From TrEMBL:
Its EC number is 2.3.2.3. The chain crosses the membrane at residues 41-57, 124-147, 153-177, 232-255, 261-280, 309-330. It comes from the Bacteria. Its main location: membrane. InterPro entries: L-PG_synthase/AglD. Keywords: Antibiotic resistance, Cell membrane, Lipid metabolism, Membrane, Transferase, Transmembrane, Transmembrane helix. This is Phosphatidylglycerol lysyltransferase. It is found in: Cell membrane. Belongs to the LPG synthase family. Catalyzes the transfer of a lysyl group from L-lysyl-tRNA(Lys) to membrane-bound phosphatidylglycerol (PG), which produces lysylphosphatidylglycerol (LPG), a major component of the bacterial membrane with a positive net charge. LPG synthesis contributes to bacterial virulence as it is involved in the resistance mechanism against cationic antimicrobial peptides (CAMP) produces by the host's immune system (defensins, cathelicidins) and by the competing microorganisms. It comes from Candidatus Vagococcus giribetii. The gene is mprF.
Length: 340
């Protein structure tokens, strides 16, 4: 990690501490400490195991995409990739650092950098498509739960969905209507040339067009491998379910057992969508706020709710940061040469 990333890491932990401290100020400390002594750590262990499985499934997805070019790519090497990606997603605004870090991690483990970029792109497309599909299902079956009780939060959920939908729509537009996508991009930059504030952005046109062409080439390869897409899609669906169900076991650890599992999955999916709107790394602040509102419907004791937020963030966020730092220090077992 460079100096800038190290500073970002310190800032992330500082922001997290400030948010938790602010939450603790609003509850009785003795009540909070009493709830800590009552935690069933077995269920926290299950929640941690699910996160490890979540990253393991993503590692398997990486292996699957590399099967043709790097068939001997080990699980040890593959498991490093999602952890490193989580680390850099966690310390960069809008999770922008994860993909570049993933490409570098693949490259340093022997994968050709062109192949690494291709794998990263394909994973991103599959993941985004299924995030949106999954969210549509959650909206259909669970949005009424939120809109009835949390009107303002429901606007954030819808806005998050719109943002992700636009991303997926643009990806599919490039894949299936490339000529139109080119015209839209060219027209956008032509418009920017006429706007004073937009002229500074025109210099990025060659880069954008190059990335557009690269994505189209990779998407063509994806369309030529339907079995690969089906397999990675099924793995991605499983990965999302495993991740979304984690808060259920956090609640069980706090002896909150009368909980609808499907409702937990829907609420967690909504929270993740809301977090994506916040420019602060990890959605710090927005994550805790949305969790307290939604899961506060299950937890009536203030001290227990703060503890639930604390445990949830440790398991789903800070654990990945720590393991990502470990993954950075672990060198690949061997160089894997790309097959010709």
């Amino acid at each position: 990690m460079n100096k800038k990333n190290s500073i970002s890491l310190v800032v992330v932990f500082l922001l997290g501490f400030l948010v938790i401290w602010n939450e603790l100020r609003q509850v009785n400390l003795n009540e909070f400490l009493l709830e800590v002594t009552k935690v069933n750590w077995y269920w926290i262990g299950v929640a941690i195991l699910l996160m490890l499985v979540h990253w393991g499934i993503e590692a398997k997805i990486t292996q699957t995409f590399l099967k043709k070019t790097n068939p001997e790519y080990s699980m040890k090497n593959a498991y490093r990739i999602p952890l490193i990606q989580h680390l850099f997603n966690a310390i960069t605004p809008f999770s922008t650092g994860g993909q570049p870090a993933q490409i570098v991690a693949l490259g340093t483990s022997g994968v050709d950098y062109g192949v690494a970029a291709s794998v990263s792109l394909m994973k991103f497309v599959v993941y985004q498509v299924w995030v949106v599909i999954n969210f549509v299902v959650c909206l259909v079956f669970g949005f009424q739960w939120v809109s009835t009780n949390f009107h303002k939060l429901s606007y954030l959920i819808v806005l998050g969905f719109i943002v992700h939908f636009i991303v997926v729509f643009c990806l599919l537009l490039v894949m299936f209507w490339h000529s139109l996508a080119q015209k839209i991009v060219t027209g956008t930059f032509n418009l920017l040339r006429k706007i004073k504030l937009g002229r500074r952005l025109v210099k990025y046109e060659p880069t954008v067009m190059e990335k557009l062409e690269n994505f189209y080439e990779q998407s063509h390869a994806m369309k030529q491998a339907p079995k690969l897409m089906v397999k990675t899609s099924l793995l991605t669906i499983l990965q999302l379910i495993v991740y979304y169900v984690v808060p259920y076991f956090v609640l069980l650890a706090l002896h909150i057992e009368d909980v609808n599992v499907f409702k937990v999955i829907v609420f967690h999916a909504f929270i993740i969508m809301i977090i994506s709107l916040f420019p602060i790394p990890g959605g710090t602040g927005g994550a805790e706020y949305s969790f307290s509102l939604l899961f506060g419907t299950f937890v009536s004791v203030p001290g227990k709710l703060v503890l639930a937020i604390f445990l949830w963030r440790i398991v789903t966020y800070y654990l990945g940061i720590v393991l990502g730092l470990v993954a950075l220090m672990v060198k690949p077992t061997k160089e894997i040469k790309e097959l010709s």
